[in-house]
Amino acid sequence: MKFQDLVNLYEEGRYEDCLSELEVFLVLNPQDIPALILKATVLKELDFQNLDEDSNELTLDDFQEVISIYKSILQLEPNNEAALFGLLETTRFFYKDLDYDEYASYIERLSIHEDELENVCRFRADLNYLHEKYQESIGNINELLSIYEVLYAHDRISKCALLTESVLFKAMILREKPKSSSTGTCRVQKI
Known about the structure:
Elements: H1 3-11, H2 15-28, H3 33-54, H4 64-76, H5 81-91, H6 100-110, H7 117-130, H8 134-151, H9 156-176
Helix pairs in contact: 1-2, 2-3, 3-4, 3-5, 4-5, 5-6, 6-7, 7-8, 8-9
């Protein structure tokens, strides 16, 4: 089976068939990066399908095979954009349980891809927030707000939605972060 046939199975939503054929394809081509990325994508889709059926929350353990595939790709090609993005997007809600320095290095590697600047800021904000580095997270959100102003200058609806989401995240952090002084004075911060 050709790789495009595998992509077609995926696009048709035939994930189980696609995975079965991918297993055969990868036996013959174990380091084929597009096929490995497709396998990780299919496995995530199957995880999400199982979530819908079981009505439970997914945990980091549910994504271990996906994470392993992305990390194996990064051993072959350390700055592979799709693998870096896939790894960071898959794990972003679990950053608190993951090694800060390791994931910061993945984000840094993703930052060399200019078209990923928005995602890099988002990932940094999440990583810093979940590791209680609140000031850094606020800085990341401020950078993200600036990016949205430029990227969505001519798309007012998207810009408004993204700015609102980011400002709400920033407000949540400002509300949650520990107070730096206990003098009873109120400090106003610009949002």
